[in-house]
Design goal:
This protein is of the alpha+beta class and 282 residues long. It has seven helices and 16 strands. The protein folds into two domains: 114 residues, 2-Layer Sandwich (D-amino Acid Aminotransferase, Chain A, domain 1), CATH 3.30.470.10; 155 residues, D-amino Acid Aminotransferase, Chain A, domain 2 (Alpha-Beta Barrel). The strands form two sheets. Strands 7, 8, 9, 10, 11, 12, 13, 14, 15 and 16 form a ten-stranded mixed sheet that branches. Strands 2-1-6-5-3-4 form a six-stranded antiparallel sheet. Strand 7, helix 5 and strand 8 form a beta-alpha-beta unit. The relative contact order is 0.14. The chain binds pyridoxal-5'-phosphate. Pyridoxal-5'-phosphate binds next to helix 6 and strand 14.
Length: 282
């Protein structure tokens, strides 16, 4: 049984309850963030909590905790779960109860849910995956709100076609990001990733920093019809790390296998997270 933090208390996971009147339940108004541990050390916790605060600010949700307090609570919740080798950490800040069911009162609830990290299929990383594109634009894409209707909808479509992720395409035919991932493309030695109108992924940021000396980074939007000019594609996320993409809709990328440059970025990332877990990186 895992231990969660809910509204000031550590409770067993089955006793982690919030009110049915909370406007996160009624309206999908709330924010969350997600991170994992390496060697039990939460990866870029300050950045994840800063993003949570930023997500809240953007939708007009007032948090009653400082970022430092939230970081402390996350660390304490990890310590309450010593049976995990590595953990997935979900931080949720609800909208709270509102008398009219729609106007936030600044009384939201902080929850920290720590579960065992689950491994994704090994073939994703060795063989590469299929993704699809989908015509959806997220509302306030820079905020990780609890309204992930578009993600749940799009992932069902992806899974029906054997794909593991769906990439949002906007009305200008720009490919922005996946339902829970950021997208990168290699064209020659240039690594391209969209600059804005996306969730600023923490993994994306680490990848940009790790590769900046070896590849030319181009922060620009990707047109859906230029994918056939890309040599390699990969997607990034905290829980997935770096996943090579070999097919987008009906288009095969490169030679249909994870490319050398993507495998190089995976290696850089693996070394970096290992060093992070060892405490060799501040
Ligand atoms: C919409 C969206 N884009 C990108 C990401 C990747 O962000 P991160 O690397 O911080 O996990 C996520 C994470 O869940 C997401 O929900």
């Amino acid at each position: 049984m895992d231990t969660y933090y809910v509204d000031g208390k550590f409770v067993e996971e089955d006793a982690a309850l919030i009110s049915a009147k909370d406007i996160t339940v009624l309206r999908g108004f709330g924010v969350f963030d997600f991170l994992i541990t390496y060697n039990k050390r939460p990866f870029f916790i300050k950045e994840h909590v800063a993003r949570l605060e930023n997500s809240a600010r953007q939708i007009g949700l007032t948090l009653q905790h400082s970022n430092a307090d939230i970081c402390d609570i996350v660390v304490q919740t990890i310590e309450k779960n010593p049976h995990h080798t590595e953990s997935n950490i979900r931080i949720v800040y609800t909208g709270g109860i509102s008398p009219d069911g729609v106007t936030p009162q600044g009384n939201g609830i902080l929850m920290v849910m720590v579960t065992p990290k689950h491994e994704l299929p090994a073939w994703w990383y060795t063989k590469g995956v299929k993704i699809i594109t989908i015509d959806i634009e997220r509302f306030i894409p820079t905020s990780k709100s609890t309204n992930y209707l578009s993600a749940v909808f799009a992932q069902q479509k992806a899974h029906k076609t054997g794909a593991v992720e769906a990439i949002y395409k906007d009305r200008e035919n720009r490919l922005l990001e996946g339902t829970t991932t950021n997208i990168f493309c290699f064209k020659g030695n240039t690594l391209i990733t969209p600059p804005d109108d996306i969730l600023p992924g923490i993994t994306r940021n680490v990848v940009m920093n790790l590769t900046k000396d070896q590849y030319t980074l181009e922060l620009r939007h990707l047109a859906a019809d230029e994918l056939n000019q890309m040599d390699e594609i990969f997607i990034t996320a905290s829980n997935k790390e770096i996943v090579p993409v070999i097919q987008v809709d009906d288009l095969f990328i490169g030679n249909g296998k994870p490319g050398d440059k993507t495998r190089h970025v995976m290696e850089l990332f693996k070394n970096y997270t290992h060093a992070y877990g060892q405490g060799n990186i501040a």
